Amino acid sequence: MSPLLITLIVLLVIAIIIVLWVVGIYNSLVTLRNRFKNAFAQIDVQLKRRYDLIPNLVETAKAYLKHESETLEAVIKARNIAAAAAEAAAANPANGQAVQKLMGAEAGLSGALSKLMMVSEAYPDLKANQNMSELSEELTSTENKVAFSRQAFNDSVMVYNTRRETFPTVIFAGMFGFQGAELFQIEDPTERNAPQVKFS
Amino acid sequence: MDFFEAQARAKKRTSWLVVLFSLAVIMTVLAGYAATIFFMRQIPRDTQYADSHLAAYYPESLWQPQTLIFVTLGTLLIVGLASLFKWLSFRHGGAAVAESVGGRLIDPIKGTKFEKRLVNIVEEMSIASGTPMPAIYVLESETSINAFAAGLTTSDAVIAVTKGTLEKLTRDELQAVIGHEFSHILNGDMRLNVRLTALVFGILFISTIGRGLLWSLYGTRVRSSSRDRNSGGIVMAIAGIGIALIIIGYIGYFFGRLIQAAVSRQREFLADASAVQFTRNPDGITGALSKIGGYALGSRMQSNNAGAIGHFFFAQGFKSMFGGIWATHPPLDQRIRAINPRWEGEFFEPDEVVDIEKENFQTKGFSSPQASATARAAAGLPPPLIDPARRIPFEPATIIGDVGLLTDGYYQQAQELLGEIPESLREAARDPIEVAALVFALLASVDAEDTPTQRDIVERTAPTSFVSFEKLLPSMQSLDPSARLPLLLLCTPALKQLAHSSLDEFLGTLDELVHADTKISIFEFVLQKLLTRHLNLAQDPNQRVDYHSFTAVSDEISVVLSVLARAGSDDTQAIGTAFATGADQLRLLDNKLSYLDPEQSNIEALDQALEKLAVSSLPIRKRLLIAAAHTIGSDQEITVTEGELYRAIAVTLDCPLPPLGAIPTAA
Q1: I need a surface site. Which of A100, B121, B175, B445 has the fewest CB within 10 A?
Q2: Record: contact A156-B130, CB cut-off 8 A
Q3: Cβ–Cβ of A141/B124 closer than 8 Å?
Q4: What is the gyration radius of the CA atoms in chain B, in angstroms?
């Protein structure tokens, strides 16, 4: 074999290795991007779950909270506003204003809910109610799920961004058109105070 | 604590340990090789080798590729086999593992308050970690605090928690424990562990080679000693190699296990850190760990099978050997300090300290039924009516058997069949209280002539079921015959939950119903066979094999095929064709099979024949089932009776078909 041929083969092998390596980087970026996209969809799912749960909660509480109809109405109203805002935001996810509006509506709902929970503390019958205790477990779980879905989104965005911005991936990320992702942040400060759900 | 950094650290340490582990494997192989060369060179070459055939094997140089290849290939082979074995043992997925330690699948809708909370928490953690939702099991008989995740992939993963975990931990703590288990699923710790175990097996194989050498020596010495006085040197050399390999193998095994345990401990730190990541609440995991330290029982498991899957648990499930260096989990205080460095070193103090010496599971009411019955009697309490803890052990592997046969077609067929069964009947089939009445009604509905007699029998022998029986009978009578068998199979899980006494009562009544008239119909036979098989199989899974040759059971095969041939048609010619088609599948018995008339092949004869065939070897049973399928399919059609009979035969032969009444059409 001539030295030229050997050099060619060596170069070819090196080229193949480099191509495989770049393919690996590309695929890992795609995986990570899909992961955070899915995580974003989860947030939506969990918010909807919460909207579905609230009418049940109010229905159960109604019988015991006759003097608190204002609070209950406020919860229902906030829920309807938030649900409508969520629909609008889902129809047009690129619209920053719609998302902003949803954030505000969500904050309002959380506030109304926490007020309801606070009020219900004063009614021992309600606390003892089997349905109510089940519902409160459901609500705790749903609040957690909403929080966890946002957290999972942010975590996966962080992993994606770290991968995208570190060497050597950073060389190729721009080339393949991988944009940096934004974290999910809460603008309204009242939303930061999650409602305290406590029955016992 | 910075959990992202902690995770990165644990992952890096794992990688290093895995590298170290691979080095250990290579070193062990090389050490085995070196020992072989060393001892072979001990033989003075000029004298002993002069006219021996062994001369060819003298290691001229230190480089002996053949020997190296032999040791390496042997190790690789055994690593491969060990991996295969391990994979196979987890082939049925996490569910089989959970059931092997007595796990019960949670019903997310009907569960208790604690179980619903658990389901919610698992859903939350599934969202937080971005992993699919696993199946959830509860270990009812374990009052310690522990949990495990099992499954080789995220899709067949399960999470199991003990009863103690459900009841003793707060919501946040339980959340942390579940988060920890999700980390094991997400990071593929079970796969890693299977691989390491396989490698450790491989190392152990080197000592097996050594033992093999010593054994071969035992044989050769007797032959060669008289003939060849000079072979002493060779014998000594081979013995030396054998002993050296044994020692190297065991030393390698010891260190292999050591590194494996170290890897496992790093994965626990990783999982703890991930639990904090998922819950964003370090107090949850520290609280759970501190409770394990506080309760006297801690995390120790009662199940005997727990040792085999020890590394999957949340905390050390059993006592480890060698003072903790083989422990699969780091000590509790280390784990707590890894999350909260300012921890004071004080475990949780339970309100009521459980004294293991005096107070045990029995007095706490968690033990086996007999023991708790005595405890109840001593305390002056009446014995429990139906013991909920009583559960006949059952192995899903044997029941599922031939999953390979479950195609989409079967699935659809099963769906259609289920759709035909009225809702009320389906509900009764799942209800342990109503299921007995359902089976009675099923039996009574088959033969309209016997129904009045059978009503009386039920009223007399099983008065508790009579009301439901009356209620279910009309809908049962209008049931499509092809749905009868699927319905019966739906009943078996509920029947298995019956207490011993109720089961005896049930079987007694059943027996009377079957014998209400003098003759036993095919359906009655099928029902009895299926039920006794499905309910007893769990108690006696050991199969013995008495017959290995086809000729020994040729008469029995004739009986089975004759009955099947007659089940499809009344026409003599069709019966003959059906029998011949089936017999044609058994070429080995070309001239030994003959069609038997109804007198010689009645239900009793079939019963006896099946008993004998059930203890024949697997190839016979398989071949027979193929022949039987051809017999009933000879006219390209299968009647309900044929299908039922075929299924009963298959079940009796311990070759279960896909569940839910799908009958394979002859291939």
Answers
A1: A100
A2: yes
A3: yes
A4: 32
